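## retry 2 of 3
previous attempt timed out at serialization; input unchanged, resubmitting
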Amino acid sequence: MRASLRTGLIAGAAALTVLTTTTAAGAATTTAPRSPQGYVQRCTNLGNGDLCIDVTGSVGQTGRIGVGYWKHAGDVVHVRLGWQNTTGGGPNSSQTVHGPLFAGDNTGTDVWTTYLAAGCVYPLIDVIGQYTLKGKEVCVPA
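## retry succeeded, writing output
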């Protein structure tokens, strides 16, 4: 996720860059880039680690939702990641079970390519055999 943030910021900066070209007559022309992608990220400290979610894309487009977990402390666990809309519908869970996770380990980022509707989404972490927690929501960029 943290690498995703860095990548997202670079991609966002590239999307906002104005392109300048020179015509055959030597005059410079400026064109705006086509449809820049939105990017948002939010992490929630769950006590023993950080649960993060990011959304790349904009409302009404196919985009990407990524969820990752960075463990800092606590017992060894196995986890499954997912996300859910705040506007309804069931959770979207990864098929991958990560673990065993020790303090200092992370899951990397599980990614879903999906249609991005207006509204917000929040990350889920299912600690296998124990409980499911949710993180703070992010709203899909307009």
